[in-house]
Structure formats: C-alpha cells, structure tokens
C-alpha cells in the first residue's frame, strides 16, 4: 500500500472502524440485486422482483437522511443500533414471506422497513473527518473510502447472485443482512472514534441540512449522476444479451467499477492547489463526456474499454464532493449532508434504470446508451447553473465553532 494510505491508518482505531464500515456497506450492493434474484427464482416474476428492489431503494432514499440527521444529534451508537434492528427485522420478514408464499403486499411492507438501513459510508467518513479535519490526510481518507465503495459494488452483486443461484434463493439477502448486523454493531462498539454528537437546543431552529444552498447543487447534480449509473447497468445487460453473451455483462460492469477504483487510489496520492469547486465541475463534465463513446461501440470488448475510461472520472468527482460538503454544511449536520448526496444518487439510479429500460424496449440496447448521455448533460447543466452557490461556505464554518469542535475532539482522544 502506498505510504499515504499506510500513514492514514496510524491513528488508533482507524483500522477497526474502516473494516466495520466495509462489512456494513456490502448490503448496499447486495440487498437489491439479491431480492431480485430471490423473488425471480421463487416466483418467476421479474416485474414483482424489480418493483420490490425499487421500493427498497426509494425507502432508503426517504429514511436515510432522517436516520443520519438523528445520528448528528444523538450519536452513532444510540441511533444506528435501533435503526439497524428495524431493518434486520424487516429483512427477516421479507425472507419468511417470500419463502412461505405469504400475501404479496407484505413483501412491499418489509421492503419499506429495510429502507431504514443506515448509510454506513457516511458514518465512516464522519469518523475520518473527526480524526483528520483540516489536514491533507482527510483527502486521502475520502479517496480510500471511495475505493471501498467501488470494491463493494464489484464483489457484492457477484456474491449475492452466486449464493442465491448456487445454494438457495434466500441466501443472498440473508448474507447481506448478516453483513449489516456485524458491520453496524462492530462499528458502534468503537466509542473512541465516534464523532461527538451535536444536540440541538430547544428553539434553536435547526432544520434539514438540505437547506444549505451548496448541498442542493450537489444533490441535484447527483440525481443526474445516479441516472447515469442506473441506466448504464440496465443498458449494459441488454447490450450483452443482444451480443449473445448476457453473462458477460457482470464482467463489463466490474470493469466500469474498476476504472473508478483505480482512479480513486491514484487521486488519493495527489495534492491539489486551487479551488476545489472547479475540480468538482471538471469531474462532472468528464463524467458527461465519457458517456459519448458507449454510443459508438459495436461489441463487448470495445464497450469494456469505453466504460473503464468512463469509470476514471467517478471516484475523483465523488471524493471532491465529500470534501466540499464539509464547507457547505454546518458541522452539526455533516453526516446528514453526506447522506443526502447518497440519497440523490439512489433516486437517480431508480430513474435511470426505468428510463433505460423504456428506451431499450422502444429502440434497442444500442440506443439505450443515449440515456446516460442525456443524464450527463443534465448533470453538467445543473453544475454550471449552481456553480456560484458553491463559493458561499455554510454559516458557522470557522471561528468559535471550529475551536469548539477541536476542543471536543481533543477531549474525546484524551478520554
């Protein structure tokens, strides 16, 4: 491992919460596809399977920011454990309902409950921020976490689908629930690195982190970015099927994620001068432009190359976004702010998947790559229109608040 990454883990407790966060994030890429595989195997109904997967995604988009908002106020341990128990109970209900063929409407109820799953990526990034805020190591930490995200999305679906098809239909979602339980309870047992909560005083106002103008720009842009990801997944599967090699779709999509993984590792080793807002906008533009070559390819090897190149812009843009959120969201709402970006991505993925499927049915897989190209153009448009807002940091950054947070962090380490 390059020295900046090795130095990153010199802080006490950093290895433990990073490992716990990795396990707890695996369900993000395993649960949805696991439910699709399970339900399609048990019932043969892909429409029902897709609807259930979409229900989980939309429920997580609604519940995730609320869970993170409570975390900012009361702490990770007090909030994550009850929220996870709700999600685990719902997952158990889903598996039992599917196995015993109970009423279908129950499946949707359980999927809504699964949406209470906390955003472990935001929780781990908040711990890195508490350790390294204001230092170059925070950039490296965010880069590392972006790589972890991509690793989860490379291997999670493969594990989930493989278990459900080779063992028994419920195996994929069951293992995802197991990863969630171990990851969350291991993470919340590590009190020394838990960020200090910020209880809101009665009558102080507060409100959602989404009131921050800069965060609104990020969320709007990442809805369009999520549409890129969601449509690329669906269209790539259809394209591979048209080419007569549907099973190769998972490999091509793994190459897409690998491009982001490589870029994230390299990006973490670099140090930049100048305004990060410009790097962010450049990254959004690069993601949009990278969606043009897939429109022109005619075979799977060429598509794999085009998607690998497209993946190179993903992790750097995500890393820069997380760094900018630190400047545009009040310290007391950092976890919620990070989760809102993930929520935007989740909503975009659902929209992109639906739009991609509609275009495929109407005009074929080749035309389907027009959906991520259009989504990229929308992301660039939102980024340019909101760029001026990104030059206005959130109120309360610096001064007394900075000193107070630093004192809290020192007290935490002394304890």
UniProtKB/TrEMBL annotation:
| SUPFAM superfamilies cross-referenced by the UniProt entry | MFS general substrate transporter (SSF103473)
PROSITE patterns (alphabetical): MFS
Q: Where in the cell is it found?
A: Cell membrane
Q: How does it sit in the membrane?
A: Multi-pass membrane protein
- Give GO MF terms, alphabetically: transmembrane transporter activity
Report whether Zinc-finger shows up as a keyword of the record.
no
Listed InterPro entries: MFS (IPR011701), MFS_dom (IPR020846), MFS_trans_sf (IPR036259)
**Transmembrane segments in this chain: where?**
20-40, 46-67, 79-99, 105-126, 174-193, 214-239, 251-273, 280-297, 303-325, 337-360, 366-387
Q: Which GO terms describe its cellular component?
A: plasma membrane
Occurrences of domain Major facilitator superfamily (MFS) profile (ranges): 213-415
Provide the alphabetized UniProt keywords. Answer: Membrane, Transmembrane, Transmembrane helix
- Pfam assignment, any one: MFS_1
Q: State the source organism's domain of life.
A: Bacteria
* Major place of residence: membrane
Q: What is the recorded name of this protein?
A: MFS transporter
């Amino acid at each position: 491992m390059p020295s900046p990454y090795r130095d990153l883990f010199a802080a006490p407790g950093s290895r433990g919460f990073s490992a716990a966060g990795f396990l707890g994030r695996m369900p993000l890429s395993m649960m949805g596809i696991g439910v699709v595989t399970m339900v399609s195997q048990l019932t043969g109904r892909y429409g029902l399977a897709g609807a259930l997967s979409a229900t989980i995604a939309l429920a997580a988009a609604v519940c995730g920011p609320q869970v993170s908002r409570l975390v900012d106020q009361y702490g990770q341990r007090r909030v994550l454990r009850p929220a996870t128990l709700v999600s685990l109970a719902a997952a158990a209900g889903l598996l039992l309902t599917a196995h015993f063929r109970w009423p279908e409407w129950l499946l949707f109820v359980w999927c809504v409950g699964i949406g209470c799953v906390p955003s472990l990526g935001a929780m781990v990034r908040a711990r890195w921020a508490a350790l390294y805020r204001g230092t170059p190591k925070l950039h490296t930490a965010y880069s590392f976490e972006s790589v972890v995200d991509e690793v989860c999305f490379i291997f999670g679906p493969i594990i989930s689908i493989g278990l459900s098809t080779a063992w028994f239909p419920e195996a994929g979602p069951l293992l995802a629930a197991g990863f969630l339980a171990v990851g969350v309870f291991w993470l919340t047992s590590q009190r020394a690195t838990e960020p200090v909560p910020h209880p809101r005083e009665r009558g102080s106002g507060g409100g959602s982190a989404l009131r921050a103008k800069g965060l609104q720009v990020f969320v709007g842009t990442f809805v369009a970015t999520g549409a890129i990801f969601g449509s690329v997944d669906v269209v790539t599967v259809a394209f591979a099927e048209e080419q007569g090699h549907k099973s190769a779709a998972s490999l091509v999509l793994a190459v897409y994620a690998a491009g982001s993984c490589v870029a994230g590792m390299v990006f973490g080793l670099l140090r930049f001068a100048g305004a990060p807002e410009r790097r962010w906008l450049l990254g959004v533009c690069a993601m949009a432009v990278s969606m043009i070559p897939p429109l022109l390819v005619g075979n799977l090897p060429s598509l794999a190359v085009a998607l690998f190149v497209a993946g190179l812009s993903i992790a750097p843009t995500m890393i820069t976004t997380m760094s900018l959120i630190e400047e545009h969201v009040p310290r007391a709402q950092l976890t919620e702010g990070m989760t809102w970006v993930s929520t935007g991505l989740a909503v975009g993925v659902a929209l992109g998947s639906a739009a991609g499927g509609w275009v495929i049915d109407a005009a074929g897989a080749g035309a389907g790559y027009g959906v991520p190209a259009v989504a990229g153009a929308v992301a660039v448009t939102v980024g340019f229109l909101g760029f001026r807002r990104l030059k206005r940091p959130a109120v309360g950054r610096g001064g007394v608040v900075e000193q107070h947070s630093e004192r809290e962090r020192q007290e935490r380490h002394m304890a």
